[in-house]
Amino acid sequence: MVEERKYWLNGQFISESMAKVPILTHSLQYGSGIFEGIRAYETPKGPAIFRLRDHMKRFVDTAKIYRMNLGFTLEELENGVREVVKINNLKSCYIRPFAFYDDDHVGVGTTGKKVSTFIAAIPFGKYFSEADKGLRCKVSSWHRIDSTILPIQAKASGNYLNSVIAMHDAHESGYDEAILTDRNGYVAEGPGENIMLVKNGEIITPGRESSILLGITRFSILKMARDMGFEVVERLIHREELYTADEIFFVGTAAEVTPVTNVDGIEIGSGSVGEITSKIRSAYFDIVQGRNPAYESWLTYLN
Question: Active-site residues: which are they?
Fold first, then answer.
């Protein structure tokens, strides 16, 4: 018999079968949950969580933006993440902290509603099955939301309906993933990933003015690329620059570093995974899998 997975809920461990919420819970009805996505990797020193403190600080910041009282300190939440990986004996995994309004009352308002905080850790491999050969992407007709609509630096469940509809559009058109533009038509990001272009050896990525989530993996890749000697530029990117880029790749916790080889039916560069993308991808995995001591501070070991 397979042992049930254990989850962390409000400071206590519960079995998977006990993880239940009311069907009318506010966060299910209105998308008012908040979350993080974190990976732990197998390393020579045992499991290591990538940039745990940065992810959990963003989780706490998102709660503050939405006036959610988590009831736990940053340190208690970090410890919950470590413990849920340990108790499930996972060498590598995807970790999902999630806070939600745990009630069964119909109504949009949240004042006085109970907040519960939940942490899961599950086995997780490649997010994209096509990650090695490269993705075919479509520029979506749906624009990326901006801060005049919802707080885009908050990682809230409702924000991702924007991503869901863009992904449906791409998949139904025969593509692997979508690329969203902001409402001025500049390139923003993927449904769950930041995007980077390579042109004449330079790495170019949309900046904060393009209504992007300032991803933690994005920060990591930019720092790492500069350390490797690459010129890195954050600026507005016109849609047509996607078509004439030498290379394109997505970055994110789930996506890691995933090449894009076709956009709107146009081959990017040679139509295969580019040299710089391959170098960035290899260097990234060296870091997260504990093979580059220069970035040891980004890893939280469990042992």
Answer: 155
pTM: 0.95
CATH 3.30.470.10-classified regions of the chain: 6-122
pLDDT in tens, 192-248: 999 999 999 999 999 999 999 999 999 999 999 999 999 999 999 999 999 999 999
6-122 CATH pick, 3.40.50.300, 3.40.525.10, 3.60.21.10, 3.30.470.10: 3.30.470.10
In the chain, CATH 3.20.10.10 sits at 135-288
To the nearest 10 degrees (0 to 180), the angle between helices 52-65 and 216-227 is 140
CATH superfamily, domain 135-288, is: D-amino Acid Aminotransferase, subunit A, domain 2 (3.20.10.10)
